[in-house]
Amino acid sequence: VYERLDLGSQHIRLLVLFPGRWTDPLSCALSLVSLNDRPIYEAVSYAWGNRTSRRTIHLDDRLYSVTAALEIVLRHPTKARIIWVDALCINQSDPEERTHQVNMMCAIYSLAQEVFLFLG
Question: What count of other Cβ atoms lies within 10 Å of the Cβ of residue 47?
Answer without folding.
Answer: 13
